[in-house]
């Protein structure tokens, strides 16, 4: 495999590059977001994953634009997400503008639909609003979060329908999908679907909220490499080709989660760590029906 470094990026179907290691900010209070993100940027993270529902977009942007970060905006990849109540054409178009106004970043690197709720017509309208946001220069890449394979297949149909009505190439480009992914929720069906289409897979809750500390294989690998179990899990995700989004507001853990480039799991160890369990520790909209 290619050598992974803190500067490793993945080229998206949109043509833009995304840093492979991201910093998640779910549940980080708005008043703490600026400090946490500044710590992450100082550590070396260049990819910040937020969402309208997290209510900390503005704090993240303060850090990104802060002179303390000493980084140009172009070097930092910022993601946000359209919340469930806004999954519609008008709601999504409005949310893009709200995020731009709240952050002052000038553009959004990646905007995702946060969950596949609202029904087929609403999802199609929301996707069209994202496509138009890209065309308007407000957003650079677009994608979805928590979609099951049935939702992804429906989206492919929506893209074809939009192309039929708007013109070839105007149905939008699905660049990224974000899911809870870790060895106890590997989502092989989704990973295979995305790989076949070149869609990048982002992994939230890659540390399983700490609920699997002490598992035999994980503990053994941590001991072998002299690393924490969290670092082994981040490394597993990177070597699978995913984009892990570990989160923490603790400076030491922020640094630890990024200190994963001085060891490499073997192919057998990557496989051994992965299980056939389906044990998500977060919400799981992936299994919701199309007519939800």
TrEMBL record:
InterPro entries: AKR, Aldo/ket_reductase_CS, NAD(P)_OxRdtase_dom_sf, NADP_OxRdtase_dom. PANTHER family: 2,5-DIKETO-D-GLUCONIC ACID REDUCTASE (PTHR43827), ALDO_KETO REDUCTASE FAMILY PROTEIN (PTHR43827:SF13). The keyword Zinc does not apply. Transmembrane segments: none annotated. Substrate binds at residue 114. Keywords: Oxidoreductase. One of its GO terms (molecular function) is oxidoreductase activity. Pfam families: Aldo_ket_red (PF00248). The active site is at 54 (proton donor). Residues 21-274 form the NADP-dependent oxidoreductase domain. Belongs to the aldo/keto reductase family. The keyword Oxidoreductase applies. It comes from the Eukaryota. The record marks 81 as: Lowers pKa of active site Tyr. This is Aldo-keto reductase-like protein.
């Amino acid at each position: 495999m290619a050598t992974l470094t803190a500067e490793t990026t993945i080229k998206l179907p949109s043509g833009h590059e995304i840093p492979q290691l991201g910093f998640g900010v779910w549940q980080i209070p708005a008043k703490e977001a600026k400090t946490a993100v500044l710590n992450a940027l100082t550590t070396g993270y260049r990819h910040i994953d937020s969402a309208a529902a997290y209510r900390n977009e503005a704090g993240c942007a303060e850090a990104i634009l802060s002179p303390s970060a000493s980084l140009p905006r172009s070097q930092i990849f910022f993601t946000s997400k359209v919340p469930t109540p806004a999954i519609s054409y008008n709601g999504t178009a409005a949310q893009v503008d709200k995020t731009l106004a709240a952050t002052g970043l000038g553009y959004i690197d990646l905007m995702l639909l946060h969950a596949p709720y609202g029904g087929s017509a609403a999802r199609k309208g929301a996707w069209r609003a994202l496509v138009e946001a890209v065309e308007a220069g407000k957003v650079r890449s677009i994608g979805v979060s928590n979609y099951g394979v049935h939702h992804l297949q429906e989206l492919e149909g929506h893209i074809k329908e939009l192309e039929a009505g708007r013109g070839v190439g105007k149905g939008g480009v699905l660049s990224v999908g974000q899911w809870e992914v870790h060895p106890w929720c590997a989502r092989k069906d989704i990973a295979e679907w995305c790989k076949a289409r070149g869609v990048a897979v982002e992994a939230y809750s890659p540390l399983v909220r700490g609920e699997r500390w002490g598992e035999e294989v994980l503990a053994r690998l941590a001991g072998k490499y002299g690393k924490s179990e969290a670092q082994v899990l981040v490394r597993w995700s990177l070597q699978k080709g995913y984009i892990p989004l570990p989160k923490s507001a603790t400076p030491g853990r922020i640094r630890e989660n990024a200190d994963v480039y001085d060891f490499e799991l073997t192919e057998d160890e990557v496989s051994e760590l992965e299980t056939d369990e389906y044990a998500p520790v977060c919400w799981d909209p992936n299994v919701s029906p199309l007519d939800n």
